[in-house]
Amino acid sequence: MLHLQRSWGWLAGMLGVLLSLAPSASSDVSASQPNILLLMADDLGIGDIGCYGNNTMRTPNIDHLAEFGVKLTQHVSAASLCTPSRAAFLTGRYPVRSGMVSSIGHRVLQWTGASGGLPTNETTFAKILKEKGYATGLIGKWHLGLNCESASDHCHHPLHHGFDYFYGMPFSMMGDCARWELSEKRVDLEQNLNFLFQVLALVALTLAAGKLMHLISVSWMPVIWSALLAVFLLTTSYFVGALIVHADCFLMRNHTIMEQPMRFQRVTPLMLQEVKSFLKRNKLGPFLLVVSFLHVHIPLITMKNFLGKSAHGLYGDNVEEMDWMVGQILDALDVEGLTNSTLVYFTSDHGGSLENQLGNTQYGGWNGLYKGGKGTGGWEGGIRVPGIFRWPGVLPAGRVIGEPTSLMDVFPTVVQLAGGEVPQDRYLTIQKKFSFPQTQQHLRQMKMSLCHCSKGSMKLFLDEMEGQAAYSYGPSD
């Protein structure tokens, strides 16, 4: 493993610098534990937002955050898919360290009822803030697992990862939840069931024909059981869509299922009501609220009053509805008198999806000048995400920062703001080396670790003068 020493200002460092530039009158606000509101979109492309260069999509509320806050222009996620990216966001660690990434097969959790999820021994920023006296809530999408050994143990539930309150989907939106193209898992399941049906039907017919023609000596019992199993598999294949919707498309409040299957036209109003209720209940603070939007993942469930309003079809309608939700949440902060005491952050879990289709129409986001998108590796379109902070009176309005930053930087940032300590018993991708006084300018010395496994004639060498690594032909050592 090579360690490259490089002086980079990480996100907490930048916030510290900005705080040092803020008016001295803000010192009383910033010295106390601030409320923290984290807004995360699902599958939103960085090019879908007005303040990131889109002049045809209307996102006035997100643009307002950037106008009166700090915009990050080199912000990336740890992965180009939901499950690994969200695991990294909550833990500050690359998802491979928590076992939340796979290089083969499905790269995200595929079933709510499947065994697996974010390990309970992982430390999330919600756990640390809860220990520091914060009320912690998650409203919206989870997609980091639910159960371990039974349908009721809920070992991977948000309430076991530092959140006091949860309302939303333990899984994720998908095409099977509404009229959309079939999901990969449903197609695979139907194909497997149909194949088994054909095998059992062939077995039943072969046994029956052989017995009737006196070619084989066998009782009728294997014939009957083969035929019954074939009929069962055919029936299951026919109803598998309804089974998936019932199994995966539901809403929970804490450990209780509230709607199964969920009624989609009610989802947006319900989410907003939950956010407003949480803010009202905890306005005396401090609180951490993560609003994990179901927008703009397929099947792009959109309220009737937003349909046909954008210049970009159903996808644009869904983006503009999400922006309206952001505005409603910011208005709720104003109503409760929380605006000046709340750090607001907006981002997406990864880049926009480019391959969603319904019939012959393609739906999905725009990743601006970056090639690739959700699920792609090697190209930046899958990991480039918006990053906007707003904290009136503390962070200067209209600041644009081009420093490389990551969703994983949020972990040490919010922990430090809350007065907590970054765990020392595990390797964090972003190692905390920044003291956070409000009046001093500090940057960290970031230790970058580069792992390399080599076979054959390629090797990795380090240029000590430039601090850069590169590949070269030669004996591997």
TrEMBL record:
Residues 34-419 form the Sulfatase N-terminal domain. Keywords: Calcium, Hydrolase, Membrane, Metal-binding, Signal, Transmembrane, Transmembrane helix. InterPro entries: Alkaline_phosphatase_core_sf, Sulfatase, Sulfatase_CS, Sulfatase_N. Gene3D superfamilies: 3.30.1120.10, Alkaline Phosphatase, subunit A (3.40.720.10), Helix hairpin bin (1.10.287.550). The chain crosses the membrane at residues 195-216, 223-245, 284-302. Its cofactor is Ca(2+). GO terms for molecular function: arylsulfatase activity; metal ion binding. Residues 1-27 form the signal peptide. Belongs to the sulfatase family. This is Arylsulfatase E isoform X5. It comes from Sapajus apella (Brown-capped capuchin).
